[in-house]
Amino acid sequence: MLAFLLRRVAAAIAMLLVVGTIIFSLLVIVPGDPAELLLSTGGGSATQEAIQNLRSEMGLDKPILAQYFSFLINTARFEFGTSIVDGSSIADAIALRLPRTLEIIGVGTVLALIVAIPVGTLAGLRGGGRFDVIASGVNALLTSIPGFVVGTLFIYFFAQVLRVLPAGGYVAFSDDPAQHLQMLVLPATTVALHLATIIFRMTRASVLEMRGHDWVRTATAKGLRRSLVVRRHILRNALGPVITVVGLQLGILLGSTVLVEFVYNWPGLSGLLVTAVEQRDYPTVRAIILTVAAIFIGINLVIDILYSLLDPRIRLK
Amino acid sequence: MTPSLPTSMMATRRGVLLSLGAGITAMAFPRGTWAQGTDAVLKFGLSTFPPTVKPFDNTGGAANTVKLMIYRGLMGYDASGKLLPELAESYEWLDPTVVVFRLRANATFHNGKPVTAADVIFSLNEITKEGSTAFLKSDLAIIEAVEEVDDKTVKITLSSPSAIFLDLMASYCCPVISAESTDGNDIGAGPFVMKSSEKGVYIELERYGAYYDEGGPNFAGIRFIAYADENLRFAALEAGDVDLIEYLPWTQFDAVEASDTMQMKSTLGPYMFLLFNVTQGPFADAKVRQAVGYAIERQDVVDAAFAGRGVPLYGLPNPQGSPFALANPAQEWTYDIEKAKALLAEAGYPNGFDCRLLATATYGMHQDTASVVQAYLAMIGINATLDLPDWGTRVTAGKEGKYDLAVHGTSGIYNDPDSLWSLLYSGNPSYLQSFGFKSARIDGLLEQGRTEVDTEKRKAVYQDLAAAYFEEVPQVPLNWRVQAFAMKKSVTGFEALPGFLNGSSAYALDETRLG
């Protein structure tokens, strides 16, 4: 078991090293000079001298390999350093923004589960019935609308026409809980909407499949109450694949909430990443991508270990 | 900065229920109940979060707006764009190269100490010193000496006369900061002090009680909020989340004009133009560049890229509010496809040629302008392939000459033809200039115009510059674009400063009243 653990941890570290190297190389290849960009924000002009001076302030005049090794060493020490644009701490920025991205994903997921599982189950139980046709139709429609369109429509109706919610933005929960929640409603719902369509489809298909199994027929034949049959014999078995899909989607959402964050001005991690890429703020881009990669790899590591505890055969492979 | 989310993610049942309850209750509250008058905070929607607010660097319009609220220089502008003494009370030219500024007795820095000659000397030295990244470093190289006459009087000697020195002293990149400033803690003398900020999200300023001008802004603070998405920025104004926004998207002008609750202030500020790589290929020939000048129907650019909110520009971009009228119909490229074809044939390209047209997908207006230009060039046989990288890549491609033809848009910083210096003077090549373009004639005229202080003689110099611009084609101008701020009707007194001064419009916040 220990050998297995060590192997997996070593593999995870190797993977992070590869990610780090790839992202470092990519940023070297991508054209764009952070110093020139900063001094020409919005189309202004800067003298070559000023740009050169700023480049050396940013440490960009050092050889690439030297920059690479200091990046590796600092990362190994968990030191992300400071933004080359404004000198602020990158670790602080990530610590501030990661929870916000997790918040809209988390709340969005809960909302999606609350709606999609009952509706999906009902549609699956009445496969082909009127409820199923309507629910599946609405679902197909919602699936085909991209998140940023939903966002724009939501803002138009709720902020500009009805004026019941702010158009976007963020206030910390600790500063003003009520306003924080007001601002959370639209982004979380937008994330939930897309996720719900996926969960609905999976739940419906899975329930549809389960309800035809022998043990369901047996349970019904035994005279069990319908609700008990559904809960204990259909739903419990049907939810396995749904949970797997939700897990996968959570990982994907971590990288894809950027449009939702942009549309609602929600200052999460992906917004920070986009700005950093635009500004060619290399250390910030690297730190964010490594953080997200580490979360991914970490989750996989935990799952691997859990599986191996549940099923010893995996350890032998 | 406060850490977010201290409790909302704690998944206790009671916590969740409480939160839900609070949320529902909160939604029932009427919005827009903040205080009015002097306690009020002006909420200002910016188009981007200022990358830095270092006093002497130019890091874009949003940064300059914030800087003007914290820092002030010797000179400034009023809401109509008139140049006025700011921290200086008065100035006097002893001769064309020596100017004496008398500082205001009641001007103080945010640390409470008076603004003195020593601070002026310190600040100008910060700009011109070795290794500085200041925007005006090369422009202020003209300063030969800065001397303290007494505590409140400072004498500046220039190496040559300068027609624009006072405008430079009013620049958002030339404030006076306290000599006690340290790296990362610059102490200004503007109407507001930095209160708090979160990178990428907001900057909040509070009123500096001892600001010299008691008639200054009547609000207690300004909260700058960055809205990168232009439609959200407008939505935030319409929903009442903010009081004032910059960069009103052109497609929303109609909505604001028709609105009962919003108004806008605009100016013809920045302009759009084409640049050429003159080191190779057909565009090395001025005749081909002239042909491009004649080949484009500018009104279509205005209509397609700016929803009709702009004015075609056919010759030297002499800004609105410039001291000289320089327009000359004989030096303008009005749309004339036959003339364009004839010039191409004359240059040896009767059947046209292929080329790369560089713009950027980051800004819709650049991309749309490029599409219209591409269509018009096709009509004279020039087949342009669009290259639309992100802004960062576009800047580098422009600087390295990786294009044949490029779209750009920018503004000068003051309303004088000298403002075109950074766009036309070959001594400082940048992505804002045609790659490899050098003209001793244009450089000479720019130098002459800068050092000539006689108005009539200067006018003649810039008339010659307009002619040289037309003949040598360092760029092909396309159109002025309307640059607008939109605000609630309850915000009064704000103006968009005219012409190239539009980037200094934050000065008008001094005369702005809330509620």
Describe the structure.
The complex is a heterodimer of chains A (317) and B (515). Chain A has helices spanning 2-29, 34-39, 48-58, 64-76, 90-125, 130-143, 147-161, 177-210, 214-221, 226-256, 258-264, 269-279, 282-310, 313-316. In chain A, helix 5 packs antiparallel against helix 10 (226-256). In chain A, 78% of the residues lie in helices and 0% in strands. Chain A has 317 residues and is mainly alpha-helical. With 515 residues, chain B is of the alpha+beta class. In chain B, 29% of the residues lie in helices and 22% in strands. In chain B, the strands form four sheets. In chain B, strands 1, 8, 9, 10, 11, 12, 13, 14, 15, 16 and 17 form an eleven-stranded mixed beta sheet that branches. Chain B has a four-stranded antiparallel beta sheet with strand order 4-5-7-6, covered by helices on one side. Chain B has a two-stranded antiparallel ribbon with strand order 2-3. In chain B, helix 7 (286-295) runs antiparallel to helix 9 and helix 13 runs antiparallel to helix 14. The radius of gyration of chain B is 25 Å and the shape is globular. The relative contact order of chain B is 0.15. Mean pLDDT of chain B is 91; it is low at 1-37. The chains are: A mainly alpha (317), B alpha+beta (515). At the A-B interface, helix 2, helix 3, helix 5, helix 7 and helix 8 of A face helix 1, helix 2, helix 5, helix 11 and strand 16 of B.
Summarize the structure.
The complex is a heterodimer of chains A (317) and B (515). Chain A is mainly alpha-helical and 317 residues long. Chain A has helices at 2-29, 34-39, 48-58, 64-76, 90-125, 130-143, 147-161, 177-210, 214-221, 226-256, 258-264, 269-279, 282-310, 313-316.
**Average pLDDT over all residues of chain B:** 91
Order of helices and strands of chain A: HHHHHHHHHHHHHH
Number of strands of chain B: 19
What would you call the quaternary organization? heterodimer
